């Protein structure tokens, strides 16, 4: 949720931390946006709906090759699937994780190791209430 390198910021915090009566060791929570769907294609479609300049997520879900491209035809389905998979596999910036439950959990595990954080605060910027709830449900179900 910041334009700063989160791993560097957390490392600086841990190095500067001084134990006190309130907290004996440094603890951290990383806030991250998540869009989770049954398929990579659906997750990417939902992400592109919120990938507007005023949301701050554009770089996380749109590759430079998408800028100014023409709408894709429905018969390009297999091509769309491979493009969606490539887009979701590129890490881009880590402010918005997009994918299936398995893909998102893999990314969260990598981020947990990279950031050495204690927990995540996960939010979903999906505007549609039912789809947002479904995103949370799929993410929770994918963890069990």
Note the main attributes of this structure.
single chain; 144 residues; mainly alpha; three-stranded parallel β-sheet; 6 helices
Topology overview:
Blueprint: H1 6-16, E1 29-36, H2 40-50, H3 58-61, H4 77-89, E2 96-99, H5 101-115, E3 119-123, H6 129-143
Parallel strand pairs: 1-2, 1-3
What can you see in these coordinates?
With 144 residues, this protein is mainly α. The protein is 48% helix and 12% strand. The protein has six helices and three strands. Strands 2-1-3 form a three-stranded parallel beta sheet, sandwiched between helices. α5 packs across α6. It is elongated and about 45 Å long. The two termini are 26 Å apart. 22% of the residues are buried. Residues 58-75 have low confidence and may be disordered.
